[in-house]
């Protein structure tokens, strides 16, 4: 594969568009395209515009029609230990019924459908059924709160929600339908006509007139469904993600280009042999990794994959390694946070299992530090697996920068090179390529310099924000929001976000969103949130709040305040956004123009001496915060 790849790399540099057209022809086109890219109105790209394609057909029907129907598509492992296997034929049959059930419920082409589901096969079936009829899915991670779900449903004007009575997490049934009820109460999501409910945990749920059991709807639905082609630029899904402002952005992906990027990257980065490999990506479908590498990329490539419902520690930390040994997983894709968690527990939980089937180990979501890389390589991979550190984003749709197995000598902590077909750069504040230094280059901003098939097509309902957020800082180039530098071999090292987006356990959060949740509480006058370095989760949320003394009532102590405000953030956004620490302060450090200096707060939160305070309007503020922290430490 390495040599083939180097050869195709040469081809693509000679003719990038022909290269992408060739990758795209690995898919089935209902109507072949004649035009590869229209970039006459940048940054609004149209890929394969006159072609017609069906994503669900590519993930299912094609394999069955070409004789692969008996191949296992999904080995499902429920958290309580129940298992279920779907061949491609069975997955297709279920998806056809689900597509018909959706049509019966009045969903049609272009309608949005929200998903709020556990990691069970029905989540995958739902996504493929929605795509099959040309509707648009918007998956909301099951860990988000009812309020977050409500705002996403309303932004997308979804017509239907698919959920489950619950999902198993950490040995318990985690309620989902209840959160949907809460999101919809008092007619707060008027666009919703029905809620489709999968029975998973058998938890008690209240079913209203709008609510329909999945099992009933599919039981009644016709079994056959013919997938028709949709225009390549037909919307496939919206996925909300955090930006630098308070409101999450609905990232829009369309069909032909997205599927090309997801399937191509899955094939080359994981060196997939769909007849032999057993693939497992641990991501939830609530995130882009679950979309591209649990659903679209892997199924379009006819892979056999494992889907596990629960958390890595259920019933104990042996679980993941038992699953790898049981199914003989050969390609494993997870996040550095998980690796660091296992590192802390110690290698004994891994060592007792036969992991010799592993061949390729992938990492995604945040920079992987060299120690975690080596542990992954040596302890999990038995020092014989290739590690692919894959850099990409919700917006890019598919992997942009990654080593290709056997094509490069990998380095611990570097994502290395853009994939063939992708052009990236690193520039300074003025958009000028960074200067070379004796060991590579200075640090700068990562850009993607030419359009690529799986690029986002916009922000749902806000074309201006799309242009402004991604394409205006460096005109003509996509600004990723990450810092990066080249080393002396020209390999890329990612340096983390340079904006107010933070990464907690690989999950993307916005400091502004958490701040606005905090100030919605009547106790809080002002809030500042920073991402502080954390040994396991990469970053952790640390909040500084100024309280409204007149609202506090019976003067709760700081611990109680922390608890109440922590619960509040969980309720407003979800448990993943809950601050690790909430510090009550009397003032926040601000510049003379009134901007909060988060850099200084980050110093405090990370226990460093506070940096330059000369631009502060009142330099005594930081002394007060520091003194307070000091008091806390000696208590
Ligand atoms: O900062 C980068 C980081 O994750 C951000 C994108 O987050 P999200 O849209 O949630 O997608 C995550 C899964 C693709 C990026 O801007 N990031 C992702 N992968 C890496 C990474 N940082 C360093 N190395 C990576 N391999």
Report the mean per-residue pLDDT as an integer. Answer: 94
Ligands bound to this protein structure: adenosine-5'-monophosphate-propyl ester
What is the terminal separation in angstroms? 60 Å
Give the low-confidence spans.
Answer: none
Main sheet attributes: strand count, strand direction, barrel closure: 8 strands, mixed
- CA radius of gyration is 24 Å
| Count of alpha and pi helical runs | 19
Sum up the overall morphology in one term: globular
**Helical content, roughly?**
25-40%
How would you classify the helix and strand content by structural class? alpha/beta
Concise summary:
This protein is an alpha/beta fold and 635 residues long. Helix content is 33%, strand content 24%. The protein binds adenosine-5'-monophosphate-propyl ester (PRX).
How would you describe what is shown here?
Strand 19 (360-364), helix 14 and strand 20 (386-390) form a beta-alpha-beta unit. Helix 1 packs across helix 2 (16-24). It is built from 19 helices and 32 strands. Helix content is 33%, strand content 24%. The longest helix is centred in the N-terminal third of the chain and has 17 residues, at 88-104. An 8-stranded mixed beta sheet has the order 12-11-8-6-7-14-15-25, sandwiched between helices. A 7-stranded mixed beta sheet has the order 5-4-17-16-18-19-20, sandwiched between helices. It has a 4-stranded antiparallel beta sheet with strand order 21-24-26-27. It is α/β, with parallel strands linked by helices. Bound molecules: adenosine-5'-monophosphate-propyl ester (PRX). Adenosine-5'-monophosphate-propyl ester is lined by residues 241, 288-289, 364-367, 389-394, 415, 480-482, 494, 497, 503, 508.
């Amino acid at each position: 594969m390495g040599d083939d790849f180097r050869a195709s790399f040469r081809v693509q540099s000679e003719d990038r568009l022909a290269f992408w057209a060739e990758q795209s022809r690995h898919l089935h086109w209902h109507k072949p395209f004649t035009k590869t890219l229209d970039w006459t109105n940048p940054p609004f790209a149209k890929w394969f515009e006159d072609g017609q394609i069906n994503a669900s057909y590519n993930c299912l029907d094609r394999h069955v029609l070409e004789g692969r129907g008996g191949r296992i598509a999904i080995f499902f492992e429920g958290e309580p230990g129940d298992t279920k296997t779907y061949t491609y034929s069975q997955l297709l049959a279920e998806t056809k019924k689900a597509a018909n059930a959706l049509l019966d419920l009045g969903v049609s082409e272009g309608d949005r459908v929200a998903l709020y589901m556990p990691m069970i096969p029905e989540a995958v079936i739902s996504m493929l059924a929605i795509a099959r009829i040309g509707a648009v899915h918007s998956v909301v991670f099951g860990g988000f709160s009812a309020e977050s779900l409500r705002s996403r449903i309303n932004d997308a004007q979804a017509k239907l929600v698919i959920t489950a009575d619950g999902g198993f997490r950490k040995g318990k049934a985690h309620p989902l339908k209840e959160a949907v009820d809460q999101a919809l109460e008092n007619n707060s999501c008027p666009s919703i006509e029905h809620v489709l409910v999968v029975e998973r945990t058998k938890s008690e749920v209240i079913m209203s007139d709008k609510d329909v059991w999945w099992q009933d709807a599919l039981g009644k639905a016709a079994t056959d469904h013919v997938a028709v082609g949709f225009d390549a630029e037909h919307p496939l899904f919206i996925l909300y993600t955090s930006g630098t402002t308070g409101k999450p952005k609905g990232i829009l992906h369309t069909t032909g280009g997205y599927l090309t990027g997801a399937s191509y990257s899955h094939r080359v980065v994981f060196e997939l042999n769909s007849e032999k490999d057993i693939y497992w990506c641990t991501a939830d479908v609530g995130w882009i990794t679950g979309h591209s590498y649990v659903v679209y990329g892997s199924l379009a490539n006819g892979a056999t994959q494992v889907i596990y419902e629960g958390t890595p520690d259920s019933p104990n930390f042996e679980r993941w390694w038992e699953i790898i040994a049981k199914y003989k997983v050969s390609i494993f894709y997870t996040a550095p946070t998980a690796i660091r968690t296992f590192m802390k527990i110690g290698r004994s939980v891994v060592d007792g299992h036969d992991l010799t089937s592993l061949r390729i180990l992938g990492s995604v979501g945040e920079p992987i530090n060299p120690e975690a890389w080596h542990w992954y390589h040596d302890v999990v991979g038995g020092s014989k697996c290739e590690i692919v550190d894959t850099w990409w984003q919700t917006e890019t749709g598919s992997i942009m920068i990654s080593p290709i197995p056997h094509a490069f000598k990998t380095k611990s902590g570097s994502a290395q090179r853009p994939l063939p077909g992708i052009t990236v750069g690193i520039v300074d504040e003025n958009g000028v390529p960074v200067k070379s230094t004796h060991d590579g280059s200075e640090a700068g901003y990562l850009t993607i310099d030419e359009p690529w098939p799986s690029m986002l097509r916009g922000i749902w309902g806000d074309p201006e924000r799309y242009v402004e957020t991604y394409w205006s800082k460096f005109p003509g180039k996509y600004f990723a929001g990450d810092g990066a530098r080249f080393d002396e071999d020209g390999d890329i090292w990612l340096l983390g976000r340079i904006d107010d987006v933070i990464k907690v356990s690989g999950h993307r959060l916005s400091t502004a969103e958490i701040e606005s949740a905090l100030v919605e509480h009547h106790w809080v006058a002002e809030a500042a949130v920073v991402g502080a370095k954390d040994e396991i989760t990469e970053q952790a949320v640390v909040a500084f709040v100024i309280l409204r003394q007149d609202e506090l009532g019976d003067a709760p102590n700081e611990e109680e305040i922390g608890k109440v405000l922590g619960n509040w953030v969980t309720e407003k956004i979800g448990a993943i956004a809950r601050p690790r620490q909430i510090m009550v302060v009397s003032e926040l450090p601000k510049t003379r123009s009134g901007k909060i200096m988060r850099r200084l707060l980050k110093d405090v939160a990370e226990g460093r001496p506070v940096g330059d305070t000369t631009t502060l309007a009142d330099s005594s503020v930081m002394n007060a915060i520091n003194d307070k922290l000091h008091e806390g430490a000696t208590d």
